[in-house]
Design brief:
4-hydroxy-tetrahydrodipicolinate synthase activity; eight-stranded parallel beta barrel; 296 residues; alpha/beta; schiff base; single chain; TIM Barrel; lysine biosynthesis; globular; amino-acid biosynthesis; Aldolase_TIM; 12 helices
Amino acid sequence: MPPTSPFGRTVCAMVTPFTPDGALDLDGAQRLADHLVCEGGCDGLVLSGTTGESPTTSDAEKSALVAAVVEAVGDRARITAGVGSASTAHTVELARAAEKAGAHGLLVVTPYYSRPPQEDVAEHFRTVADATGLPVMLYDIPGRTGTRVEPDTMLRVAEHPRVAGVKDCAYDLLGSAKVIAATGLAYYSGSEELNLPLRAVGGVGYVSTVANVAGPAVAAVLDAYDRGANEEAARLHQRTLPLVELMMAAGLPGTVTAKALLGALGLPGGPVRAPLRPASAERTRALLAARAELGL
């Protein structure tokens, strides 16, 4: 049986839908969330993360988004709110607002730009975890923040009773496996190509951008692995890689490619906010073709 976690297992890093004029589309967010849970194979949603364009949404928009999505999906999925920022005080404010709006958990990214030393990173996480009664998923993505959460730091922070998980974008399977072995932290792959490898070394699941548009195909990989069909899991994982590469590693951010596909599929998403720009028609056609190869 797969490990359990308060954040879910097959988790989508949901885009934030906007109207054609760029305003927050709460109705669209509710419809997309319902689709991802009912038809997309997702038992958890992360809001206002990287894919959710959190740098360009206001605090009020973040709270409204949480409230709307919680209302839409109820108890059918775990809703985790991204509350990270470069400021500890601001992160605490966002965490308390997310709790008030009904979130089930918090995603807290390493403070970025200031490049704090490791003990400062640990204290930041502890301070945020102390601020609410919600479980916390740490978000380790040094490629964006400039600061790694070192394995020794993870081990120290894991002692906090509300630090429950990690979204892992560190590309260090050895370090992740060591922390998994030594703690009760629920590890989630935040790098699509590592969804299966991380699960194989004790991870719980994934927080996936690709799940916005191909949730059943992504979930099928873990489903096969968890029933002991390892060769099938590997085959299904390999089958997703062309779409994964085109969405996540071909020069455009995952937000841009996910929204291009959602729009082409008639699902809520809308435009991206500047400084991001939309995908070209040519790229959108290529994305649709790669998705079609999955039989979706």
